[in-house]
Amino acid sequence: MNKRQARHFAIGATVVASAAFLGLTLDSHRQFDQLTHADKITAEVKRGKDVWHKNNCINCHTVFGEGAYYAPDLTKITKLRGATYLTAYLRDPSRFYDETRHRRLMPKQDLSERDIGDLIAFLDWVSNVDNQNWPPRPLLVSGATFPGSDAAPGQAVAPGGRPVASGYDPIALGEHVFRNAAPACVACHSIAPGVNLAGPSLAGLAARSAALLKSGAYHGKASDLAGYIRESVTAPSAHLVPGAMYSAGGASFMPPGYGKDLTPAQIEQLVAYLSSLK
Length: 278
Known about the structure:
The chain is mostly helical. The chain has helices at about 5-35, 45-55, 75-80, 85-90, 100, 115-125, 170-180, 205-215, 225-235, 260, 265-275; strands at about 60-65, 65, 245-250, 250.
């Protein structure tokens, strides 16, 4: 290739690359309203964005990967924590996390109830934006893991860490649901004794549940272990676990939509897995 040919090649490549970039940019702008659900931007969402900026939440948190990385990314927080939990948390974060035990402490912002509601509306709008699963960042602060929550997503593992060879083992399939449901159960529950996250540890769940059903303190409708676990998944407010971290105003912090979002088969697989946690 001589100099003239090289020059023509460079100019042609630049023109093609520029045209491709311009086309992709225009196509992105064409889809922005659909991808961001612009029709869902209400007055509450706009005011919630103002609350977010006024309280400098971005100094510690990120959304869409933008912000500080001192605290968890909140892009999908409402998918992992329901409005009931987030409301109680924003009222008084110290009820949920202790700096000494959990190595984190969110300052109490003294937000009004309206501010809290609008902020959650903003974060809920953020969580529904189609961001193509970017950034691929977990809820936990970078580098932090809790026992019982650090297995690879989708890994079929029986209690005790034994890999399961058969893809049809109901316990292995239930383990997969536990780690891959939306939101993932493992985002709020550990299977390690004494490690309570947003929800109580599920270590020893079978024995504790059997004792609860016999104690007279149970207020739900189940009559056996499988029924109690099934009820806890599909109707989490039927029986409330004592503790300010887990419920408020007679409603569980656990998302109520698993009964609709999971298939009957997935629920039974999850019941099989949780029943195995002796």
